Amino acid sequence: MTRRRKCRHCGQLHEPDPRNRYHQRYCGQSACCQASKAASQRRWRASPKGRDYFEGPANRQRVKA
After folding, report:
1. CA-CA distance, 43 to 46, in Å (whole number)?
2. At 50, phi and psi to the nearest 5?
3. Does residue 11 come out as left (phi exceeding 0), alpha (psi in the -120 to 50 range) or beta?
4. Local confidence pLDDT in tens for the 65 residues of the chain
5. Helix extents (H) in the chain
6. Chain centroid, CA 6 distance in Å
7. Residue 24's pLDDT is what?
8. For residue 2, what pLDDT is reported?
9. Half-sphere exposure of 27 toward its Cβ, with a 13 Å CA cutoff?
10. Of the candidates 62, 8, 57, 54, the residue with the CA atom closest to the CA atom of residue 32
């Protein structure tokens, strides 16, 4: 038995995929998928690992080139 969930972006109820039902928070509409990706990237960039990912001399040289 699956439980319907409210999408974090559009607010409509949706059936989560049975394989992801415990952590799927966005429905499958394209705008909601884009919002999910943007939120995921914001979380990663805010994490300690993501903050320093593009730091260092090797990345500076790559950007200059």
Report:
1. 5
2. -75, -30
3. left
4. 568 999 999 999 999 999 988 999 999 999 999 999 999 999 999 999 888 888 888 888 888 88
5. 30-46, 48-51, 57-64
6. 17
7. 94
8. 65
9. 14
10. 8
Tell me whether residue 60 is exposed, middle or buried, using C-beta atoms within 10 angstroms of its C-beta: 0 to 12, 13 to 18, 19 or more: exposed
CA–CA dist 15, 47 (Å, integer):
30
Furthest CA-CA distance within the chain: 55
CA dihedral (2, 38, 11, 8) positive or negative: positive
Torsion of CA 19, 22, 28, 31, to 10 degrees: -150
Partners of 13 in the beta sheet?
A: 6
Q: Do the beta carbons of residue 45 and residue 31 sit within 8 Å?
A: no
